Amino acid sequence: MKKNTYTVENSGGSGDGGIKAWSFGNHQLLVRRVMQVTMSIAGLAVLWMFLSNSASSIEFHTFSHYFSAQSIKAGYESKLESVLRTASMKDNKTVIITTLNDAWAKPGSIFDLFTLRGPVGNETQWLLNHLVVITWDQKTNAYCLAMHKHCYQVETKGSNFTGEVFFMSPTYLRMMWRRTEFLTSVLEMGYNFVFTDTDIMWLRDPFKQFYEDADFQIACDAFNGNSSDINNYPNGGFKYIKSNNRTIWLNKFWFNSSKEYPGFGEQAVFNKIKLNPLISQMKLKIRFLSTSYFGGFCEPSKDLNKVSTMHANCCVGIDNKVNDLKILLEDWKKYMALPEIEKKQSNLTWSVPQSCSTSFERANEERKKNKGRLQRALVETV
């Protein structure tokens, strides 16, 4: 019987040594391959853990940032809710709102003359309990809290409204639109409000002159005698707005319309959108307030027996406003000092505007000059 012969090439070695060498070599190869596979799996595991931790970190950071932003927003809203609830008239959730920055809060400036703070108004002191002062900066808020119990610092979204803000300047426009946006949030929280510029002197209780059935009531620079006539020229510095779906829609429509009229103030934009058919479709009841009761330097109230508020409108510059408001308050004090019979028979009239009249005329002339320069520049460049 023929034997099978295995030939192993191994120079200088026997057949058994070759088999052992072959077996040992295969064992080493197997070990190396196992180690390679193990290292590959370990590498993949490490890579997976790294990516998993990175993703978790990103997700955690994103979540933390979102949660932080939501917490800050909730904090603002809860604080505002607390201020509004404390200040509101309990029977109808109504507050009085004004805004204040550092320039108007300085001693001897506009805020010190604000009628609700002094004994000048006729039966107006109770309204102070319902006044919420919205401040534009931390310094003013601290000053406000030292003087008044209902103050709230509004978030200004990166803008700086601390100094004197000149009429129709870019900062002025940003501040006015931020104010409109903020007041919309008050309506959304279910509160009615009377908004009043701080340069408005409250001489009598204005609530007695408001229309009970109106959703939106606004003062006028010029009043034509018909409170329902949409062609009256409104003034955004004094308005009474009731919270409902119609007024919330109107304020949002008003705010969003600023994009359609860049460079326009909220008062000018309202004067344009008031004619929009959407407003009539919403069945909004808008009333324009007579200057007989809600007057100003543009169109002063003529009868001191009727006047409720007087506004330092059509006036440019804090100093001019302060000067004329002081004169106005002296006129009012003289009137209030008269016996009741003499008040009714009195022919007393306002001594203002004085500085405000000339300042407004100068401002108008300057605007006309600037407009003329712009028109000439456009012609020259065409």
Describe this structure in words.
It contains eleven helices and ten strands. It has 382 residues and is α/β, with parallel strands linked by helices. Strands 3-2-1-4-7-6-8 form a seven-stranded mixed sheet. A three-stranded mixed sheet has the order 5-10-9, with no helix packed on it. Helix 5 packs antiparallel against helix 6. Keywords: Membrane, Transmembrane, Transmembrane helix.
By CATH, the architecture is named Alpha-Beta Complex
For this structure, what is the CATH homologous superfamily? Spore Coat Polysaccharide Biosynthesis Protein SpsA, Chain A
Nearest-angstrom radius of gyration?
Answer: 37 Å
What is the number of independent domains?
Answer: 1
* Overall body shape: elongated
CATH class: Alpha Beta
Output the number of helix runs: 11
Oligomer: single chain
Protein name: Nucleotide-diphospho-sugar transferase domain-containing protein
Domain Nucleotide-diphospho-sugar transferase: 127-325
Pfam families: Nucleotid_trans
Transmembrane segments: 30-51
